[in-house]
């Protein structure tokens, strides 16, 4: 039999640190009190609305969650953005058990199961803890009698007499189920939280939770692998029983490990004391060196002070003698009383020289010594920096390296790093970053602790450069700082949109993925049918697709990448005033000089063709980026062809009427031109032949966690 008092650790809520009360099972399989879940969600939403103020964490004294689990989610509402499609609302919950943000889905807290098994165990623990406290009858007249039964259907406790009165023989109530006195009431049948009238009768092996038949037929578990509840019960019970039997059979081994751990605890205590003494001795040496330097510096300052005071006092005495009837002047006045010329001349000659020197010093007064001690200011900036980085260094902790390929800047910064030896020998990492600013002399690094090998950093300034570095910690031992990596943020706030599958979308030629973040053009049978008109020249059309959100004002940036195999892709912007013209222009890539009936072969018509286009686009294809022809551009075609970047970005400034095309990897502008922003501007894409475009995925708070899991 299990000793109830020995399992108290498993019955404590990670949020309130008290015994569970109506525990709910989260998707991450951790349990949290129902009340705690509501309080954490309220605190999370408050911090959401307050823009991430840390004070909202303290809204409930019951919650003691770690601050790292309460990372704020950006809610950026930008002026000038119009969206014509809605995304389903989901609820994020910061689990206090695993310190991750858990998606509770559209139903939120209403979609969570109540853990009745855990609730029953907690109730047994409470009863064992309060064995001397009896459960009283709920229906007795005062004074109430001690209860002998608890009716699970009535959710109440009764003494023998009251139970007979309220459950008379021959009635429906006589069939009620009763147990011994308890305060834990649980339903007979577990109902589905999504379909409240349906009982759960299946188990989803993907989501690891009970489901009903409606969840399997048309709900979120339609395509998941499920099994019957009895089969799941039998399988899980067998696995759990085998695991428990294995642990019980290894009881002697567990006790041996406990004895070894006790010895390790004592050894740790002794070693920590020894390490403290060694660290204290090291700092005592530093204190001794500093004390010597301090004493020498104070002695030098004191000696300089005494010398300067002596000079200033001597100068003050000299000037004191220049006063009437005092010192040199008084002596000269007495000499003037001498009437014998020979005696007067003998004394007055030397006196006159002294009087002249005193007169000259009076005209050009200068103190005999400086009062400032600027020469004795101790510069400790370098030593202070060294001391601030003072830590335990060891060759056992590898220096991490920031991966520029896996790191990226978009709506947020995702910084990823690896260890050269490909072994995770660190307990924790410390990531530091700062904005590069030429005007600032003293650099202030911002620091954050990370348990994984990546970190998402929000709220960075647009069109800026940041330096990043990371170091690893193994206990108290740390590695040196990694090489600094400089990354650039986008030139404007990131604009989010999806491909529009309604306005002008050609489903015969273009293929969208279900999330509408990728579009593909297939050079298949439809293109062959369209080539019937091809006799001498080229007479094919582009397939256009636009974004489902438009921009009315402000400056915005978005990024995407084009598959290297793409034959022809055009990217840019289109005004709402010209969308109809765009999708009705069927001769957009045909040149008159290639027509059979053109009659000439001049290129003058191409210039007219380019200027009459209803949108601003640049051409990509065959792993190349083509800079459009302009009067100011170079006439050499080779200079207008650049390698296609792995990721491209477009920056639209509606206020200035300009659009720029960027290498999104280094945020370098490749081409910029003017654009008419009189209407609402939409991102535009055109594909021909085999081609594909993928929108850049926004960096979220959970992005790095998912990447680590994969």
TrEMBL record:
<dbReference type="InterPro" id="IPR040859">
    <property type="entry name" value="Midline-1_COS"/>
</dbReference>
<keyword id="KW-0493">Microtubule</keyword>
<dbReference type="InterPro" id="IPR003961">
    <property type="entry name" value="FN3_dom"/>
</dbReference>
<feature type="coiled-coil region">
    <location>
        <begin position="258"/>
        <end position="285"/>
    </location>
</feature>
<keyword id="KW-0862">Zinc</keyword>
<comment type="similarity">
    <text>Belongs to the TRIM/RBCC family.</text>
</comment>
<dbReference type="InterPro" id="IPR017907">
    <property type="entry name" value="Znf_RING_CS"/>
</dbReference>
<dbReference type="Pfam" id="PF18568">
    <property type="entry name" value="COS"/>
</dbReference>
<keyword id="KW-0833">Ubl conjugation pathway</keyword>
<keyword id="KW-0808">Transferase</keyword>
<keyword id="KW-0863">Zinc-finger</keyword>
<feature type="domain" description="B box-type">
    <location>
        <begin position="187"/>
        <end position="229"/>
    </location>
</feature>
<feature type="domain" description="B30.2/SPRY">
    <location>
        <begin position="477"/>
        <end position="708"/>
    </location>
</feature>
<dbReference type="Pfam" id="PF13445">
    <property type="entry name" value="zf-RING_UBOX"/>
</dbReference>
<dbReference type="InterPro" id="IPR000315">
    <property type="entry name" value="Znf_B-box"/>
</dbReference>
<feature type="domain" description="COS">
    <location>
        <begin position="336"/>
        <end position="393"/>
    </location>
</feature>
<dbReference type="InterPro" id="IPR047065">
    <property type="entry name" value="TRIM36_Bbox2_Zfn"/>
</dbReference>
<dbReference type="InterPro" id="IPR013320">
    <property type="entry name" value="ConA-like_dom_sf"/>
</dbReference>
<dbReference type="Pfam" id="PF22586">
    <property type="entry name" value="ANCHR-like_BBOX"/>
</dbReference>
<dbReference type="InterPro" id="IPR035727">
    <property type="entry name" value="SPRY/PRY_TRIM36"/>
</dbReference>
<dbReference type="InterPro" id="IPR017903">
    <property type="entry name" value="COS_domain"/>
</dbReference>
<protein>
    <submittedName>
        <fullName>TRI36 ligase</fullName>
    </submittedName>
</protein>
<dbReference type="InterPro" id="IPR050617">
    <property type="entry name" value="E3_ligase_FN3/SPRY"/>
</dbReference>
<dbReference type="InterPro" id="IPR036116">
    <property type="entry name" value="FN3_sf"/>
</dbReference>
<dbReference type="InterPro" id="IPR043136">
    <property type="entry name" value="B30.2/SPRY_sf"/>
</dbReference>
<dbReference type="GO" id="GO:0008270">
    <property type="term" value="F:zinc ion binding"/>
</dbReference>
<keyword id="KW-0206">Cytoskeleton</keyword>
<dbReference type="GO" id="GO:0007051">
    <property type="term" value="P:spindle organization"/>
</dbReference>
<keyword id="KW-0479">Metal-binding</keyword>
<dbReference type="GO" id="GO:0004842">
    <property type="term" value="F:ubiquitin-protein transferase activity"/>
</dbReference>
<keyword id="KW-0963">Cytoplasm</keyword>
<dbReference type="InterPro" id="IPR027726">
    <property type="entry name" value="Trim36_HC-RING"/>
</dbReference>
<dbReference type="InterPro" id="IPR013083">
    <property type="entry name" value="Znf_RING/FYVE/PHD"/>
</dbReference>
<dbReference type="Pfam" id="PF00643">
    <property type="entry name" value="zf-B_box"/>
</dbReference>
<dbReference type="InterPro" id="IPR003649">
    <property type="entry name" value="Bbox_C"/>
</dbReference>
<feature type="domain" description="Fibronectin type-III">
    <location>
        <begin position="396"/>
        <end position="492"/>
    </location>
</feature>
<dbReference type="InterPro" id="IPR001870">
    <property type="entry name" value="B30.2/SPRY"/>
</dbReference>
<dbReference type="InterPro" id="IPR001841">
    <property type="entry name" value="Znf_RING"/>
</dbReference>
<keyword id="KW-0677">Repeat</keyword>
<dbReference type="InterPro" id="IPR013783">
    <property type="entry name" value="Ig-like_fold"/>
</dbReference>
<keyword id="KW-0436">Ligase</keyword>
<dbReference type="InterPro" id="IPR027370">
    <property type="entry name" value="Znf-RING_euk"/>
</dbReference>
């Amino acid at each position: 039999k299990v000793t109830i008092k020995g399992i108290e650790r498993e019955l404590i809520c990670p949020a309130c640190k008290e015994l569970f009360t109506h525990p709910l099972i989260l998707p991450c399989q951790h349990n949290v009190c129902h009340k705690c879940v509501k309080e954490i969600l309220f605190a999370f939403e408050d911090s959401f609305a307050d823009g991430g103020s840390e004070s909202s964490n303290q809204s409930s004294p019951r919650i003691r969650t770690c601050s790292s689990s309460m990372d704020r989610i950006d809610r950026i509402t930008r002026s000038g953005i119009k969206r014509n499609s809605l995304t389903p609302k989901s609820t994020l919950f910061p689990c206090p058990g695993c310190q991750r943000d858990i998606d509770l889905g559209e139903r939120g807290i209403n979609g969570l199961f109540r853990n009745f098994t855990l609730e029953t165990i907690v109730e047994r623990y409470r009863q064992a803890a309060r064995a001397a406290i009896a459960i009283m009858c709920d229906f007795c007249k005062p004074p109430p009698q001690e209860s002998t039964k608890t009716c699970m259907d009535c959710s109440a406790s009764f003494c023998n007499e009251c139970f007979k009165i309220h459950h008379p023989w021959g009635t429906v109530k006589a069939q009620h189920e009763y147990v011994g006195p308890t305060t834990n009431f649980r339903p007979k049948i577990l109902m589905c939280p999504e379909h409240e009238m349906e009982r759960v009768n299946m188990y989803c092996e993907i989501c690891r939770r009970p489901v009903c038949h409606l969840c399997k037929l048309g709900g979120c578990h339609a395509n998941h692998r499920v099994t019957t509840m009895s089969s799941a019960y039998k399988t899980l019970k067998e696995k759990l029983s085998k695991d428990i039997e294995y642990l019980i059979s290894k009881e002697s081994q567990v006790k041996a490990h406990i004895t070894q751990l006790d010895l390790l605890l004592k050894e740790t205590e002794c070693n920590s004391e020894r390490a403290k003494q060694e660290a204290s001795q090291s700092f005592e040496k530093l204190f001794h060196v500093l004390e010597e330097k301090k004493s020498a510096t104070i002695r030098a300052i004191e000696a300089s002070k005494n010398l300067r005071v002596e000079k200033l006092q001597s100068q003050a005495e000299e000037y004191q003698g220049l006063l009437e009837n005092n010192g040199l002047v008084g002596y000269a006045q007495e000499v003037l009383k001498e009437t014998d010329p020979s005696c007067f001349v003998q004394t007055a000659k030397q006196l006159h020289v002294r009087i002249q020197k005193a007169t000259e010093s009076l005209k050009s007064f200068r103190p005999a010594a400086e009062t400032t001690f600027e020469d004795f200011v101790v510069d400790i900036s370098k030593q202070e920096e060294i001391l601030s980085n003072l830590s335990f260094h060891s060759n056992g902790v590898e220096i991490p390296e920031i991966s520029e390929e896996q790191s990226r800047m978009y709506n947020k910064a995702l910084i990823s790093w690896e260890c050269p030896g490909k072994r995770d020998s660190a307990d924790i990492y410390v990531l530091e970053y700062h904005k590069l600013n030429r005007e600032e002399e003293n650099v202030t690094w911002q620091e954050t602790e990370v348990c994984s090998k990546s970190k998402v950093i929000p709220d960075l300034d647009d069109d800026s450069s940041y330096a990043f570095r990371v170091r690893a910690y193994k206990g108290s031992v740390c590695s040196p700082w990694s090489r600094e990596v400089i990354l650039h943020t986008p030139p404007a706030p990131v604009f989010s949109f999806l491909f529009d599958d309604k306005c002008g979308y050609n489903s015969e030629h273009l293929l969208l993925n279900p999330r509408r973040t990728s579009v593909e053009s297939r050079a298949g049978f439809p293109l062959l049918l369209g080539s019937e008109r091809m006799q001498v020249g080229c007479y094919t059309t582009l397939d256009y697709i636009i974004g489902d959100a438009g921009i009315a004002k402000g400056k915005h940036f978005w990024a995407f990448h084009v598959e290297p195999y793409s034959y022809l892709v055009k990217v840019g912007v289109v005004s709402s005033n010209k969308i109809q013209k765009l999708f009705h222009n069927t001769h957009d890539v045909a040149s008159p000089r290639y027509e059979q009936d053109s009659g000439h072969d001049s290129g003058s018509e191409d210039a007219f063709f380019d200027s009459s286009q209803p949108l601003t686009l640049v051409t990509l294809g065959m792993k190349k980026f083509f800079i459009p022809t302009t009067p100011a551009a170079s006439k050499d075609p080779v200079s207008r062809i650049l390698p296609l970047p792995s990721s491209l970005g477009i920056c639209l400034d509606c206020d200035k009427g300009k659009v720029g095309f960027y290498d999104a990897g280094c945020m370098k502008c490749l081409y910029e031109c003017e654009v008419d922003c009189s209407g609402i501007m939409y991102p535009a894409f055109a594909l021909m032949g085999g081609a594909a475009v993928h929108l850049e995925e926004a960096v979220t708070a959970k992005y790095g966690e998912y990447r680590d899991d994969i």
